């Protein structure tokens, strides 16, 4: 059982929000689930019919507008999944839009939660960790990937990955900074108003119903391009496709959140690094291999050697803390993630074709 009766999921039309909404509904049919979304993300509208089918209420609204929180059903839990989620947001232009949503919008979400006395679950990001210190970590190059090597003298770093103790000093992108600012505001709300809150700093989340695009949702993008026979590019770090990320199936994220919801004593503003971990990691080259195996197609892949300012060579999540507190471990590996995305695209070719092809 969970101590909540009614949940508001902001950004619930998006990839993470819609999947969580449906899985929550399935796990606790009596839980009232309301979703608020501006449908800014192209493709989020495709999630609305499947939300409606299960009785999840959709409200069109923008978290940048405080008034859009008025007249919502009462809620005792807010899951904040509304964001501009691209690390490239604001680059080559103004950061205004990403800051308006991720910073001002988060303040409005926190205010609404405070007024309702609701608990607050924040989907933060591994991108709060700064770029240069991550790219300076000791590494080697193997035939298919870059790999971090062991060092014991760097706080928050080990071969397992980056833990919550890693430095937060340095530039990290407007996206990462706006999310870190959100985390810090949550800390103030916990301290000043007794807000019950929990923060999951997630690495790459992947799975069905992610409307992948070049700057966000790379796993879907890779599978879709193989499925539809469209070209791809290895960009950055010499253009060899050896950069590495750990990836987490959205259903594994839900399994964790389920345990977190059942553990109210942890809702004191705690921060957890959440991800697929070392065993759940792939390089782009290895991802290509998985996609070829899964779809049976090969596609032309060109190289762009230049590295963009926000690119990371390697990122792995050290999940020691979250595993210890919730006895949780991801169950779905990268091959399974690719398989599930492929099955979803195959079953919904008509619907997602225009978007993903
Ligand atoms: N997907 C990942 O790999 C990943 C990794 C780490 C953290 N996160 C975080 O998880 C959350 C969900 O990400 P996602 O992958 O589902 O992204 P998404 O783009 O699929 O979903 C975000 C949703 O928020 C909505 N939205 C954007 N601006 C809004 C606004 N001003 N008002 C109301 N709705 C708005 C969009 O329309 C979209 O439906 C985000 O907070 C993101 O920072 C995602």
Q: How would you characterize this protein structure?
A:
- This protein has 357 residues and is α/β, with parallel strands linked by helices.
- The chain has one domain: 3-Layer(aba) Sandwich (Rossmann fold).
- Helix content is 36%, strand content 20%.
- It has helices at 15-27, 48-53, 96-116, 131-135, 173-193, 218-228, 250-261, 284-295, 320-326, 334-347, 349-356, and strands at residues 6-10, 32-37, 57-60, 77-80, 119-125, 139-141, 146-148, 157-158, 161-162, 197-202, 204-206, 232-235, 244-249, 268-274, 281-283, 301-304, 314-315.
- The strands form 5 sheets. A 7-stranded parallel beta sheet has the order 3-2-1-4-5-10-14, with helices on both faces.
- Helix 3 (96-116) packs parallel to helix 5.
- The longest helix is centred in the first third of the chain and has 21 residues, at 96-116.
- The model has no long low-confidence stretch (mean pLDDT 97).
- The structure holds nicotinamide-adenine-dinucleotide.
- Nicotinamide-adenine-dinucleotide binds next to helix 1, helix 3, strand 5 and strand 11.
Key features of this structure:
357 residues, alpha/beta, Rossmann fold, 7-stranded parallel sheet, 4-stranded mixed sheet, 36% helix, globular, binds nicotinamide-adenine-dinucleotide
């Amino acid at each position: 059982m969970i101590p909540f009766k009614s949940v508001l999921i902001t950004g619930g039309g998006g990839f993470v929000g819609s999947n969580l909404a449906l899985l929550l509904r399935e796990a606790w049919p009596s839980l009232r689930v309301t979703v608020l979304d501006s449908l800014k993300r192209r493709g989020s509208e495709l999630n609305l019919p499947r939300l409606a089918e299960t009785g999840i209420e959709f409200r069109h609204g923008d978290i940048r507008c405080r008034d859009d929180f008025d007249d919502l059903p009462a809620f005792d839990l807010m899951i904040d999944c509304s964001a501009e989620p691209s690390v490239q947001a604001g680059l080559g232009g103004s950061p205004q839009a990403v800051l308006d949503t991720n910073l001002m919008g988060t303040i409005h979400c926190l205010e609404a939660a405070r007024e309702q006395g609701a608990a607050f679950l924040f989907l933060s990001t591994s991108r709060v960790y700064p770029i240069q210190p991550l790219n300076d970590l000791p590494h080697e190059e193997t035939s298919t990937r870059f790999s971090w090597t062991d060092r014991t003298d760097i706080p928050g770093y080990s071969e397992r990955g980056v833990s919550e103790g890693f430095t937060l000093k340095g530039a990290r992108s407007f996206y990462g900074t706006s999310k870190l600012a959100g985390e810090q505001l949550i800390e103030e709300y916990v301290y000043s108003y007794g807000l019950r809150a929990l923060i999951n700093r997630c690495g790459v989340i992947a799975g069905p119903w992610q409307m992948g695009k070049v700057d966000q949702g790379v796993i879907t993008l890779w599978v879709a391009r193989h499925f539809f026979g469209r070209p791809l590019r290895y960009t950055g770090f010499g253009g060899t496709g050896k950069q590495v990320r750990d990836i987490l199936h959205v259903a594994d994220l839900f399994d964790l959140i389920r345990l977190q919801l059942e553990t109210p004593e942890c809702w004191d503003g705690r921060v957890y690094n959440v991800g697929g971990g070392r065993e759940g990691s792939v390089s782009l080259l290895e991802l290509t291999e998985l996609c070829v195996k899964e779809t049976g197609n090969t596609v032309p892949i060109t190289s762009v050697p230049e590295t963009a300012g926000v690119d990371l060579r390697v990122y792995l999540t050290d999940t020691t803390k979250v595993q210890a507190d919730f006895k949780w471990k991801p169950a779905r590996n990268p091959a399974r993630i690719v398989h599930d995305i492929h099955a979803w695209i195959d079953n919904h070719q008509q619907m997602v074709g225009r978007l993903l092809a």
